[in-house]
Amino acid sequence: MRDARAAADAVAAATGVASHDVAIVLGSGWVDAVSDLDQVGGDVPLASLPGFAAPTAVGHGASLRSLRAGDVKVLAFTGRSHFYESRDVDLVAHAVRTAAAAGCRAVVLTSASGGIADELAPGDIVLISDHVNLTGESPLVGANFVDLTDLYSARLREICRDIDPALPSAVYAGYWGPNYETPAEIRAYKTLGADIVGMSTVLEAIAAHAAGMEVLGISLVTNRAAGLGGRLDHAEVLETAAASVERMRALLIQLLPRLSPAT
Ligand code: HPA
Question: Residue 250: CB within 6 Å of ligand 1?
Fold first, then answer.
């Protein structure tokens, strides 16, 4: 396993901030949603930190920022390493483990996804209530039988609903990628109970939970999933995200200051 302690020490040295309270991982199109928050110091390139690699997906940044949301010290990752980039599960989990070692007690995992449930349309923001991990992988190794019954924190979802009572819950299917799903796969995942599908979140969520963090998953539906709408295209994903950025920003600006650690 990569050395999260060494990475967290490097984060403290690079940001000048000894510890952080909450981490946020910014998925496709989400980075502009935090641009109004005060930033302490400059952007820290992820590739300059021990164990990290620069994310390669278009629409993702490749840096880390120390932000302030009220009294809450937020460690923001402007991009993430996806499983499909390297098939290196330990690399995928390294950001959240580093956040935990940096003091974060909660992590917000944001993403873009395809809508499977009939009622979910492009532009909808949903709260992840559970997942189906389709990758066949876990970030945990060894006889580490972590309970995932409450993987996605009900407490943190309640805080979101206090801000916007209309936010729906969704079960996230974590696909391996980088190809999109087939229509037959989407029909299968619907019968498995999935409401949305994406290529991130699940492995990070497991690693974060195992590291003792509360996990909040927020996804922007950017398209109808394969076979349920038109053809799939990453440019369309980014276009929908750009069109939705004000609502994503409004949610995060109200949410992050309220994410002080559970007592
Ligand atoms: N499938 C997988 N990942 C995605 C999708 C999708 O339809 N949309 C955005 N990310």
Answer: no
